[in-house]
Amino acid sequence: MSAILIIGAFLAFVAVGMPVAMALIVPSIAYMFILGYPLPTIPHILANSLDSFPLLAVPLFILVGNLMGASGIARRLFRFAQLCVGHWKGRLAQVNILASLIFSGSSGPALADIGGLGTIEIKAMKDAGDKPSFAAALTAVSATTGPIFPPSIPFIIYAATAETSAVKLLLAGILPDLLITIVLMAFTSFLAHRRDYATEPRAARSEVWHSFVSALPALLTPVVLVLGMLGGYFTATEAAAFTVLYILVASIFIYRDFEWQFLFRATWDTVRISSVLMIMVAASMLFTRMLALEQIPQLVTKAMLTLSSDPLILLLIVNIVVLLIGLLLETTSAILILTPLIVPPLVAAGVDPTHLGVVIVYNLMIGLITPPMGMSLFMVSTVAGEPVARVIREVLPYYFPLLVILLILTYVPQISLWLPDILG
């Protein structure tokens, strides 16, 4: 009964607009105080929850995205994508999607994609005559690819919480992300034909080649990262540190456009964002400790397995629950709260935790572009200077392909597991 009251208090605090971290900490402290647990253990729990080597990858990958956004690398990636697919129906709409895939291979977070490349994408589409609301909506939709392709901060947080392999999860996101990109580009082409969008002239091969050479160091970032992890040269955290070094070397010695102010600004943004995330991690771990003391994960496991032992039905339930939670909570807090509850019953039913991680994270990416929270929606509306309501209207058609992809990823686990399995 006490756990139900504490969970109810958490939901009530979130409903009235309290920051999620505080909504997690306050009920947890109240629970421990009421039941007589020694309160000096609370700082100990909060500090120990951050004493995790895998979690160190989070601020490092955030720094990678900020460095690429602050330097000219994002512009080079966008230009290369523009020359590759700008002549397709929908022109810059297609460029937007492809550029997000390319940039995600170096930045990771969806919001980093919007903040780093989104400004360039939206301005280019507006200058080309596209509706600002459509430019903003497509930027938010295409940013869902970021956290699926390595490096992926949500995957790292999920791996640390579920105690599974971060490297395997990062590899598992490659094929699903390519599938998402292909489907989004196909659907955008369909919309472009229906709305009679214009095309651009095909770029000359020499121009494409010159742009490719210019963008090559940035394009090689995910390749170096994945090959390094596969070769056993470094873990996911060490890969993050190496990627930071790689971007700095590329900016200083290859592109020669490095300025110290870029590094200071990127570092400050990284500290600010990482601080928020780490507070969230510590708060959720305290809340999870309370759930563990009340044996909530075991009760949830028993309840779900009593409801059904069929993994297909359980995956359907998980999709519904995570989609609903994703409407209310941002990605990190949702992963930290849901993972200890969802993973045990699904693994007991025979679902691979790596496949489950892909499904959960992709669900939450859809939540980023869905009201009422929809952090991506609010961010792109600010960047584009468009009301959120107009952006949402343009996003609506894209829910259909995104949900179709969700069903495919849920019920065809080989798409997620084939690459990590084949690479060992």
Topology:
Layout: H1 2-15, H2 20-34, H3 41-49, H4 57-70, H5 73-85, H6 92-107, H7 110-127, H8 132-142, H9 153-162, H10 166-172, H11 174-195, H12 205-230, H13 236-254, H14 260-293, H15 296-307, H16 311-326, H17 331-348, H18 353-368, H19 375-384, H20 388-395, H21 399-411, H22 414-422
Helix pairs in contact: 1-2, 2-14, 3-14, 4-7, 4-13, 4-14, 5-6, 5-12, 6-7, 6-8, 6-11, 6-12, 7-8, 7-19, 8-19, 8-20, 9-17, 9-18, 10-22, 11-21, 12-13, 14-17, 15-17, 16-17, 16-18, 17-18, 18-21
Summarize the structure.
By secondary structure, the protein is mostly helical.
Kindly describe this structure.
With 424 residues, the protein is mainly α. The chain has one domain. Helices cover 78% and strands 0% of the residues. It contains 22 helices and no strands. Helix 4 (57-70) packs parallel to helix 13 (236-254) and helix 6 (92-107) runs parallel beside helix 12. The chain is globular, with a radius of gyration of 22 Å. The termini are far apart.
Please indicate the percent range of residues in DSSP E strands (runs of 2 or more). under 5%
Biggest β-sheet: count, sense, barrel? none
The helical percent reads over 70%
**End-to-end distance, in Å?**
46 Å
Radius of gyration: 22 Å
Structure characteristics:
single chain, 424 residues, mainly alpha, 78% helix
